[in-house]
Write a structure and sequence with these properties.
about 290 residues, Neuraminidase, four-stranded antiparallel beta sheet, globular
């Protein structure tokens, strides 16, 4: 009986040591792959640099669109309230709040001289003339013919063509994401898309995963003031896609989710400085000035 107990204990010891050895090997492999993965991620994000951060007050936790006013000020909207927020970058504070409409899902803002245009997710556009004036301000809502087909999030001013660009976030039974033009002369949306972002384009080869229609879900669109190239931002799987002037997809830059928790807004300074706004998502909403190193 004694010998049997000794043998049993010995077998248990061998089994325990074997299990520990197996777990050690698994742990080593896991750590090795994790380090490799982190290194690869760092290399993928190495050309995106953060120049400066502005942490935003709680009222802008749902910040959804931004537009540069001048070197010190940014106009912003958020998902819930019909308010234009004037944020002072130098003072790191909101210096003005401008009511333009009722509560709603507002997703983008574009400025054309003294007029602000705000995009609601259903595709309707709010034109706020003399938006900085307390006496002459006037708001007009423009209904578009595509409001039932898409969920919209991106809005930009296309100065060369005197129109707004409106980017859909989700498709309607198509193999591309459309970007429509809204003519500022007749205040009507163009029937055919200005640009088509095809999901099967080779620029997405390294980031495409899951359902094809989830390849890119635009949250913002803007035009670089110097190059004229079109920048499209995504917040879900954060990335920037760059289109050439003719609409061809030229480049893609992945953004680190740790720094870009929910990238929703993108605007440019006069010399091409890039500013991206992020919703709070459990932390502080912010505006980041970033640079893309070629």
């Amino acid at each position: 009986m004694g010998n049997f107990n000794k043998k049993g204990m010995s077998m248990q010891k061998i089994t325990l040591l074997t299990v520990l050895a197996v777990f050690s090997v698994i742990g080593f492999i896991y750590i090795t792959f994790e380090k490799k993965e982190k290194k690869e991620l760092q290399e993928n994000y190495s050309n995106i640099g953060i120049v400066k951060e502005w942490k935003l007050p709680e009222i802008l936790d749902e910040i959804s669109g931004i537009a540069m006013i001048d070197s010190e000020r940014i106009a912003a909207v958020q998902d819930e309230n019909g308010i234009i927020f004037i944020y002072n970058l130098t003072g790191s504070k909101i210096e003005e709040q401008i009511d333009f409409g009722g509560d709603g899902d507002y997703e983008g803002i574009a400025l054309v001289e003294n007029t602000a245009y705000i995009l609601r997710s259903d595709g309707n556009i709010f034109e706020v003339t003399n938006y900085r004036s307390s006496t002459d301000r006037q708001t007009t809502e423009h209904k578009t013919s595509v409001q039932k087909e898409f969920n919209f999030e991106g809005l930009a001013y296309d100065k060369n063509n005197n129109r707004l660009l409106i980017a859909a976030k989700e498709k309607a039974k198509q193999d591309f994401i459309p970007v429509f033009g809204f003519d500022l002369n007749d205040k009507k949306i163009e029937k055919e898309p200005v640009y088509k972002i095809h999901f099967n384009d080779e620029v997405f080869n390294d980031v495409r995963k899951g359902k094809l229609e989830k390849t890119i879900l635009p949250s913002e669109i803007n035009i670089h003031p110097e190059t004229g190239k079109v920048f499209i931002l995504e917040g879900v799987d954060p990335k920037i896609v760059i289109l050439d002037k003719d609409g061809s997809l030229q480049d893609l830059h992945s953004l680190n989710k740790d720094n870009f928790r929910q990238a929703e807004g993108l605007t440019f300074g006069r010399s091409g400085e890039i500013y991206i706004s992020n919703e709070g998502k459990g932390g502080k909403a912010n505006i980041l000035q970033v640079r893309i190193e070629q």
